[in-house]
Predict the structure.
Amino acid sequence: MTAPTTLCPACGTTSAGNFCSGCGASLAGRACSACQARLSPQARFCHRCGHAAPLSPPPPSPPRTKGRERTAWLVAGGLCVLLLGAIVVKVTGGVSAAATPDMANPGGGGAPGGGDGAAPAGPAPDISQMTPRERFDRLFNRIMQAAEQGDTVQVQRFLPMALGAYSQLDSPDVDARYHAAVLRLQGGDAPSALALADTILAAVPTHLFGYVVRGEAAALTHDAAGGAKARREFLAHYQAEMKANRAEYLEHQRAVDEFRKEAAQGAR
């Protein structure tokens, strides 16, 4: 059964129910306030007693769901814009402000007491384009420079990178093994440094670097007997080894000289 329709007195839309589908005005019947006669929605006076008809109740307020949804989307959009702007500022500002580590310092004198020259200022080279040995040498020098300056943060930052570069070397020579041993000592890993000292002495049984590393590892672990033995063996082979004019001794002259001085004092 079809519901009866009524012509809206406010906007003229034909609608069914209690409210107009066009404007929302009430379509319900009204009663005369004087004689209680039923009045049509559009009646302005009572047809029975002539009394003025009461005004139609105002149409219900339209739902504000869409308005609230639109406001919510505008707020969400504004927050997204602010968040995106903060990310852009953080990324661009952080990259430009961050200090680029300088791994371009020349020379190899990075052992304890080695290398006097300061690294030149400027951006670091792209070590990804270097050979494993070039990467290892640059990182070693960077770590030694930071260690001499007491910058333990930089030492810990670059130490894993340098050891990773060393592990990629196909056939490390005595000098590279010595550098790796010094890095292990910087990281407090005396057993690994001693293992590298053994490989140095296996390659060259009288090489001074083997005794230097053993002596430094003994000092790190408070091994007095091991340190004394390393110093004695160093002194026993010092003269013959220095006559060999090995390039690595010249490169790390200060380290060799300082260990010799300690060994001589301990022998007295």
Observations:
- The first helix runs from residue 65 to 97.
- The mean pLDDT is 77.
- The two ends are 122 Å apart (CA to CA).
- The CA atoms of residues 110 and 144 lie 5 Å apart.
